[in-house]
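Chapter review: from sequence to fold.
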Amino acid sequence: QGMCSPQLLFCRLLILCNCARQLAGLSVSDPGFMRRRLSPSVFFSKFSCWPFDSRRRATTTDTQEAHEQSPVDMESIVTLCKKRGFVFGSSEIYNGFSGFYDYGPLGVELKRNIKEKWWRDMVQGRDDVFGLDSSIISSPLIWKASGHVAGFSDPMCDDKKTKKRYRADQLVTAQVMSDDGSSLGYVTVLESDNTVQDLLVAASKAFRMSSIVVNEPTLSRVSDLTEAEFVNIPPPDDPQRQGDLTYPRDFNLMFETKVGALDDSSSTAYLRPETAQGIFVNFKNVASTARGFKLPCGIAQIGKAFRNEITPRNFIFRSREFEQMEIEYFVPPDDWKLYYETWTQTCTEWLVTGCGLRKELLGFEVHEKLAHYAKACTDITFEFPFGVQELQGVAARGDFDLMQHQMASGKSLEYFDDDSKSKFLPHVIEPSIGVDRLFLAVLCSAYSKEQVHGETRTWLKFHPSLAPIKCAILPLVKNNDQLVGVARSLYDHLKRQFACDYDASGAIGRRYRRQDETGTPFCVTVDFESLEDGAVTVRDRDTTQQRRVPIPLVGRIVRDAIAS
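The token string follows.
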């Protein structure tokens, strides 16, 4: 009736074994083989010619025929994040809420691992950095002194007809011409890695001509145009409506809120747009209470920040609620160049060795146009699927922030140096990175595909220390009490040491693929032979190679990989 009893299945296996014994060099009457007849580790290792679904027990050679697939695209990343529970769009049952995201079971583990790794290496692993956790809402006088109330803004343009709003510094416009050199008008698009191509595509659709040339000398950001030039500029959605884009106006990015019972200007406060100011206003508190605080010395913080981005885009890369990991490293004024270069190198090395990012995806962009207070700034860039973008910034901020708060508060923030017996305002080196942005970079760097025996295998090559699940325990079958008992016992033991998963659902090959897609470094299969030899099969995620390991050594193998 479409079902097979264990006895009938065993008889069929014996018949097939008899047919294969010449190839396998075994006799099925061998008592040792009969005793281990249902042990997959023996059965499939002896009968390498067994015509069975290779997913039943992956072999040590199943990556030899593999080859890399095309580069990762954002659609694949977003789909995987939703499918496996890394990231969800916020308020999905209410059709979403733009610019906000929720982290699922695996996402919150990965995010937590990233933050803990950074804290261990940048704070606990150093003698010259101390921690802080400042409040999200603080006195609005802080943001006035820092310049955020008056100057923390983006230039915005509005489509006069559709009322859509755009960041002017993200819009690119250019004149387009026909083959005979006559002007067809101007076209506007959002900046990308293929801006010129995007302009040509938009112009071809608008003017219904196949031969169109972009007049590249006229190409410029909308934010750089004069008000007189705006009469020629159309909105991105419709090149025919020239002049329907408003001249850029500054739009403040801070979220306002009310504190207290009154609902007037005196109760206005802000959700912090960055974590740095909380460090600056607490400089004297930390310097006077942290034992061993002596310049050069830093204060570190991990925390939420909020910016009312008008055009949040590229998934979690640019959102309205995000987390930052920042260090304000205070140095003597004459030594800032040395520590600026040192921190740039330190951060780059940590992204590769600490987070496992592929080195070839990283780059540098040294800012030539600086903020009025900055002495130097370098962006460590990452090659995302949507283009090369800033991942981490290292800025030399001078003494601007401490000076502003000292002047506005009337309280001295000077540091007394015991060696020189002098007081001065330290200069600041600021290594700053977004947790969500690094989360996305880790996913993109780890995302891998290959062909194995004609099937596509997708896996996330996380560094074991960052992997949300370190180890998966897989009983070969779920209806054998002895197997399940051993698997459960091992799972209960290991989950006290690191994050584990217990997975007994589906064929063993499917479970391997499922764990590959979540980035689990090791799969531990408890099979029938485990009941006799006290060992399990440990499968490596990246190579798919398997080895028999005594049960007491499994925890050490995983711990060594995490610490490597």
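Two observations follow directly from the output. Residues 17-69 have pLDDT under 50 and may be disordered. The CA atoms of residues 179 and 211 lie 6 Å apart.
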